[in-house]
């Protein structure tokens, strides 16, 4: 690898990744609305779940699912497009992986906004789609089906990230690609730690809402209802 090209790839990824479409969209459509914090009362308790993620999820809470989906697509594209361009330009070298990695970092810690960004799920998938779009389809389908049968909403949402690790290794045996997938996972889970810490505390205290409420909170209500009909938990409940 050429160091100058690697630096160009990384800087390009970081600067484009630092663009906050969540902030830009809200500033145009709803100026004055605070998109920097999500507060959601946990169903059946007085607990409040908080998130400082400035992302598609925050936009969904403020402006509705249509605009949340739009921001998610834009966040995917801001990683996908420059990553794909570097892959097409230098297909025999992993410069595109540098671009994808720095794009996630830019999204999570944006230069233009005091390093306060999102959690990086959409940007991770932007890179994964360039790396192996078939893997994204397969791992997410398998993850959602298995998690749906188990009745676990969070697993439905995130299983695809973890399944990409064995998928890439067994499919490519490429250390650079495996390293990128591992690093992308690590950056996502590190950024998610504030929310995961709250989740673990609520679980210890027995204050977690049921899976349907979690699905609605995460914007996956319809998907969860469709899959839950065939879940193990639902089948057992019908037999009681």
> How much of the residues is beta strand, in percent?
under 5%
Largest sheet: 2 strands, antiparallel
Shape type: globular
Please tally the β strands and state the result.
Answer: 2
Tell me the number of helical segments per DSSP (H or I, 4 or more residues long).
12
Radius of gyration: 19 Å
Mean pLDDT equals: 83
Overall helicity:
over 70%
- Uncertain runs are none
Structural class: mainly alpha
Secondary-structure element order, as H and E? HHEEHHHHHHHHHH
Strand order, biggest sheet? 1-2
Distance between the termini: 62 Å
Which terms summarize this structure?
single chain, 240 residues, mainly alpha, two-stranded antiparallel sheet
Briefly say what this structure is.
The protein has 240 residues and is mainly alpha-helical.
Structure description:
The chain has 240 residues and is mainly alpha-helical. 72% of the residues lie in helices and 3% in strands. It has helices spanning 3-17, 21-29, 56-63, 65-89, 95-108, 121-150, 153-172, 175-191, 193-204, 211-217, 221-228, 232-239; strands at residues 38-41, 48-51. The protein has a two-stranded antiparallel ribbon with strand order 1-2. Helix 4 (65-89) crosses helix 6 and helix 5 crosses helix 6 (121-150). The longest helix has 30 residues, at 121-150. It starts with a helix and ends with a helix. The model has no long low-confidence stretch (mean pLDDT 83).
């Amino acid at each position: 690898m050429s160091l100058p090209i690697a630096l160009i790839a990384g800087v390009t990824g970081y600067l484009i990744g630092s663009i906050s479409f969540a902030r830009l969209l809200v500033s145009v459509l709803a100026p004055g609305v605070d998109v920097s914090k999500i507060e959601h009362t946990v169903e059946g308790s007085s607990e409040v779940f908080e998130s400082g993620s400035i992302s598609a999820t925050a936009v969904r809470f403020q402006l509705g699912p249509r605009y949340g989906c739009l921001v998610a697509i834009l966040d995917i594209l801001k990683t996908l497009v420059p990553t794909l361009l570097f892959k097409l330009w230098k297909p025999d070298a992993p410069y595109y992986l540098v671009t994808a990695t720095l794009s996630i970092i830019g999204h999570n810690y944006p230069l233009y906004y005091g390093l306060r960004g999102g959690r990086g799920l959409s940007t991770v998938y932007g890179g994964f789609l360039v790396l192996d779009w078939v893997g994204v389809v397969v791992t997410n389908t398998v993850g959602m089906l298995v998690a749906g049968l188990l009745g676990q909403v969070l697993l439905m949402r995130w299983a695809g990230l973890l399944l990409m690790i064995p998928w890439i290794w067994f499919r490519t045996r490429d250390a650079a690609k495996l390293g990128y997938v591992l690093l992308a996972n690590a950056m996502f889970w590190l950024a998610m730690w504030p929310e995961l810490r709250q989740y673990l505390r609520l679980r210890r205290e027995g204050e977690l809402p049921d899976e349907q409420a979690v699905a609605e909170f995460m914007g996956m209500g319809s998907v969860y209802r469709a899959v839950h009909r065939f879940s193990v938990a639902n089948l057992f409940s019908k037999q009681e």
